[in-house]
């Protein structure tokens, strides 16, 4: 099982509470991920909200990954919001800039807020996504790097896209699948799948894992060559620090749910107040379902994902803690969770932990 770092770019407090560069912090965290032996770095895409300031995942992948050797993925490039020819060129350019280290995660978008602001009907998301992804498949498969599209949302005759991806025919493609039907569809199509269950219990993860494995096997896919990733918040910590982390998870959850279900009360700057929801997870729910707790407790939870056949844990530590706290948690997880897990399963560390650079503490 691999361990990826998901740089969520999330900020749960008011804009005036932050004085440092969000993007410099993430660049430093990406470098720390490589130094600490994580397998991959992932970056998201969202629009017009203070909560996640990531208007172009491919640009962020270039920003954090250009001077590293680790693989960098987008989770997810939203195929619904831009012209497919533009997206194709941006994907190829990013793979070129990253020397063929791009992992392409694609999705249709989760927040109705974004669609409404951009004048795109939220109900069209699924069909727009399928049309754009089908075009990319044909484009990558073409010998001359050109393809046509006669779709519902875009129509054009054969157009060549330059540059072409460094990886041929294209970077590995991951589909962001939130529901069992989407996971099943993507698995049967031969794609890697990434799922984030938020604070839902492990039973939900088990259902997704079973759906993925059944779909993959029905299509003739092999374990390992076609992968399932699960995104979870993580923070190995002591009992004295747990309440602060639980509170940050809860604030994060409130904002996310208000955006996801289009119930937010956003001010003109796009800041969403984390007002309590009618139904909220308990402290026990948060501690049980997320990778929070002592390193030993986190290790036990990692073993459960391994038993379910999860190929990669996409961990995000930046659900609210300060940048310096995120760096510390990443290091503790690497030394006291990831390393013991790899040792117990005879898996080699990707690279030794090097000395922490001075810039990482500034």
Structural commentary:
The chain is an alpha/beta fold and 362 residues long. The chain has a single domain, classed as Luciferase-like domain (TIM Barrel, Alpha-Beta Barrel). The protein has eleven helices and eleven strands. The protein has helices spanning 22-36, 57-65, 84-97, 112-118, 125-141, 180-188, 202-218, 239-260, 283-289, 295-307, 323-344, and strands spanning 2-6, 40-43, 71-78, 102-107, 146-150, 155-160, 173-176, 192-195, 228-236, 291-293, 312-316. It has an eight-stranded parallel beta barrel with strand order 1-2-3-4-7-8-9-11, surrounded by seven helices. The protein has a two-stranded antiparallel sheet with strand order 5-6. Helix 6 (180-188) links the parallel strand 7 (173-176) and strand 8 (192-195). Helix 1 runs parallel beside helix 11 (323-344), helix 2 (57-65) packs parallel to helix 3 (84-97) and helix 10 (295-307) packs across helix 11. The longest helix has 22 residues, at 239-260. It is globular. The chain starts with a strand and ends in an 18-residue tail after the last helix.
């Amino acid at each position: 099982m691999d361990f990826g770092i998901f740089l969520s770019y999330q900020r749960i407090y008011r804009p005036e509470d932050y004085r440092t560069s969000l993007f410099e912090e993430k660049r430093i965290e990406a470098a720390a991920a490589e130094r600490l032996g994580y397998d991959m770095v992932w970056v998201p895409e969202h629009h017009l909200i203070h909560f996640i300031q990531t208007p172009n995942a491919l640009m962020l992948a270039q920003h954090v990954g250009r001077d590293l050797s680790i693989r960098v993925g987008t989770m997810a490039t939203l195929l619904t919001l831009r012209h497919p020819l533009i997206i194709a060129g941006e994907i190829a350019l990013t793979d070129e800039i990253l020397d063929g280290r791009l992992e392409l995660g694609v999705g249709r978008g989760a927040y109705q807020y974004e669609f409404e602001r951009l004048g795109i009907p939220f109900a069209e998301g699924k069909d727009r996504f399928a049309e754009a992804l089908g075009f990319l498949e044909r484009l990558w498969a073409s010998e001359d790097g050109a393809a046509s599209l006669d779709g519902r949302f875009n129509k054009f005759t054969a157009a060549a896209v330059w540059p072409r991806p460094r990886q041929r025919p294209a970077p590995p493609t991951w589909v962001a699948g939130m529901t069992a039907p989407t996971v099943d569809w993507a698995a049967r199509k031969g794609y890697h799948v990434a799922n984030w269950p938020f604070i839902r219990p492990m039973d939900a993860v088990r259902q997704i894992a079973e759906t993925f494995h059944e779909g993959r096997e029905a299509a003739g896919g092999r374990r390992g060559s076609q992968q399932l990733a699960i995104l979870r918040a993580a923070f190995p910590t002591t009992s004295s620090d747990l309440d602060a982390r639980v509170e940050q998870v809860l604030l994060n959850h409130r904002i996310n749910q208000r955006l996801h279900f289009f119930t937010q009360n956003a001010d003109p700057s796009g800041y969403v107040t984390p007002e309590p929801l009618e139904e909220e997870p308990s402290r026990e729910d948060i501690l049980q379902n997320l990778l929070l707790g002592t390193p030993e407790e986190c290790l036990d939870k990692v073993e459960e994902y391994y038993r379910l056949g999860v190929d990669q844990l996409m961990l995000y530590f930046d659900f609210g803690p300060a940048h310096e706290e995120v760096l510390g948690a990443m290091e503790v997880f690497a030394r006291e969770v990831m390393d013991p897990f790899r040792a117990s399963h005879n898996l080699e560390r990707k690279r030794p932990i090097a000395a922490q650079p001075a810039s990482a503490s500034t």
